[in-house]
Amino acid sequence: MDVLNVLMRMFDHEHWANSAVLESFQSSPDNEEARKLFSHILAADLLWHGRITGNLVDSSELWRTLSLAELEERTSQVRMLWEHIFTELQKDPSRLEEPVFYTNTKGDSFRNSLRDILTHVALHAHYHRGQIARLLKSDGGVPAYTDFIQFARLGQLSDV
After folding, report:
1. How confident is the model at residue 155 (pLDDT cuts 50, 70, 90)?
2. How many Å apart are CA 147 and CA 118, to the nearest integer?
3. CB 59, CB 105: distance < 8 Å
4. Under CATH, domain 3-153 is a member of which superfamily?
5. Are 139 and 28 in contact (CB under 8 A)?
6. Per-residue pLDDT tens digits for 11-39
7. Which among 91, 93, 126 has a CA at the least distance from the CA of 1?
8. How far apart are alpha carbons 36 and 95 in whole angstroms?
9. Could you tell me if 8 and 96 are in contact, meaning their C-beta atoms sit under 8 angstroms apart?
């Protein structure tokens, strides 16, 4: 399996896991800290997408807590944006090695390959989803089971 296909599968997992987290919010008591963490996951996706495309977004959004309705809308928005990126990459996979120049939230400038940035984005949410699961469970909710192996067991296929 080539790098592009691996990244596409990682993002398929990401979309699947985000949808599962949304479902767990609907069947659990409201937990503002959990919503804040999920809001952060989606805001970070938008931030990195903006760095890749040059459509920069306000980094102050990184820790703003969204409502459940806003989270549902943002989840769909993020999925569509990444699907567009991967549609373009399928036309020219060599772009994965192109450098992306960006400035972080502290004002420091960096350069990383698009491949490394996409890998980071795909991995970033795992830690926070674990935190969300712990928070929901501590409030008596039922956290989503978002491990990659569960995604693989269910036979999820790439649709980007």
Report:
1. confident
2. 19
3. yes
4. dinb family like domain (1.20.120.450)
5. yes
6. 999 999 999 999 999 999 999 999 999 99
7. 93
8. 33
9. no
